[in-house]
């Protein structure tokens, strides 16, 4: 077990090393403490105690996420807080649980002193579909639900005895915790059809997933098919119904999102490279070529014509 005491600035360094890069907003007198149990590679269990603060993971941070694609599940043992992700905001009281994902920006706030237990793990360990995982984020998990009570009790006990376990036992215990979490999440996520479900529903699920995960640089045609448990060939036949291909639809949606950002004064200080990264395109020349083919002008040219905000950002 590793134990750290921290200020707001020190918490940013700890989060970057053990959890996810975030921006911390807290008062100058803010102090906190966290104890961390390592259960395996990209799998940790921690217990923290801190005062009023907010932690923010920006969309740009999410776009630069590592291949591990981490998830964080928290149980609020004491105090009150809230989480915002995917245009959802949930208030959390003692005993409630909440899931967040690294691939999308989020904000976590605490209105009181809080004690929290957190399980941080690689997304690939969670035996649920991508749509189920995303739908479960920023939703409160009822502390009175039997599955949640089992999970809370298990995590609390695991935290206490982890030092007495071998490395292999800790890893197995951590995997068991994730299986219990999957059981809890199935109670809070809407049912989704499998690959043999109604064609129109499956296609709409894919289109929605693309629009909600444009910042994900790993979202490509093959990855979209994998996340929805269909073959690439079948996915092409699905998108033929709307007169396009999966690759063309993904590119179109990314360029539409970039076009909107370039026209929005709120993003006036972002360079075009940053806007490209925010929609999942990390090569500036690729972005500029695709944008010119789609709209007949460069990103900078579009901004000059449609954004009346000075000074313009440097690109």
Automatic annotation (TrEMBL):
Q: Name one Pfam family in it.
A: AraC_binding_2
Q: Which domain of life is it from?
A: Bacteria
**Keyword Manganese set for record:** no
- What UniProt keywords apply to this chain's record, in alphabetical order? DNA-binding, Transcription, Transcription regulation
Does Metal-binding appear among the keywords? no
Q: Please name the SUPFAM superfamilies in this protein's record.
A: Homeodomain-like (SSF46689)
InterPro entries annotated for this entry?
AraC-bd_2 (IPR035418), AraC_XylS_family_regulators (IPR050204), Homeodomain-like_sf (IPR009057), HTH_AraC (IPR018060)
Residues in HTH araC/xylS-type domain copies:
204-305
Protein name per its UniProtKB record: Helix-turn-helix domain-containing protein
* Organism for this UniProt entry: Pseudonocardia alaniniphila
Could you read off the lineage of the organism from its UniProt record? Bacteria, Bacillati, Actinomycetota, Actinomycetes, Pseudonocardiales
């Amino acid at each position: 077990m590793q134990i750290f005491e921290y200020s707001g600035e020190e918490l940013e360094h700890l989060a970057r090393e053990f959890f996810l890069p975030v921006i911390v907003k807290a008062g100058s007198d803010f102090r906190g403490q966290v104890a961390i149990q390592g259960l395996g590679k990209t799998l940790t269990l921690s217990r923290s105690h801190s005062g009023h603060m907010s932690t923010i993971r920006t969309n740009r941070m999410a776009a630069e996420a590592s291949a591990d694609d981490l998830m964080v599940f928290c149980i609020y043992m004491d105090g009150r807080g809230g989480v915002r992700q995917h245009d959802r905001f949930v208030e959390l009281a003692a005993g409630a649980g909440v899931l967040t994902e690294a691939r999308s920006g989020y904000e976590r706030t605490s209105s009181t002193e809080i004690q929290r237990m957190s399980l941080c793990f690689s997304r690939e360990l969670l035996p649920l579909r991508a749509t189920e995982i995303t739908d479960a984020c920023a939703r409160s998990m009822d502390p009175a639900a039997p599955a949640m009570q089992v999970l809370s009790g298990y995590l609390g006990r695991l935290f206490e005895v982890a030092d007495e376990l071998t490395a292999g036992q800790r890893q197995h215990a951590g995997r068991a915790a994730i299986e219990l979490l999957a059981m809890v999440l199935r109670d809070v996520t809407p049912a989704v059809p499998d690959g043999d479900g109604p064609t129109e529903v499956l296609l709409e699920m894919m289109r929605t997933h693309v629009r909600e995960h444009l910042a994900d640089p790993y979202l490509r045609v093959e990855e979209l098919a994998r996340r929805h448990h269909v073959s690439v060939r079948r996915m092409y036949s699905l998108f033929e119904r709307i007169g396009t291909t999966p690759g063309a639809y993904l590119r179109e949606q990314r360029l539409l999102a970039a076009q909107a950002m370039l026209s929005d004064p709120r993003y006036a200080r972002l360079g075009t490279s940053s806007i490209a990264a925010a929609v999942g395109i990390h090569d500036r020349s690729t972005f500029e070529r695709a944008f010119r083919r789609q709209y007949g002008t460069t990103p900078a040219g579009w901004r000059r014509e449609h954004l009346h905000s000075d000074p313009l950002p440097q690109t």
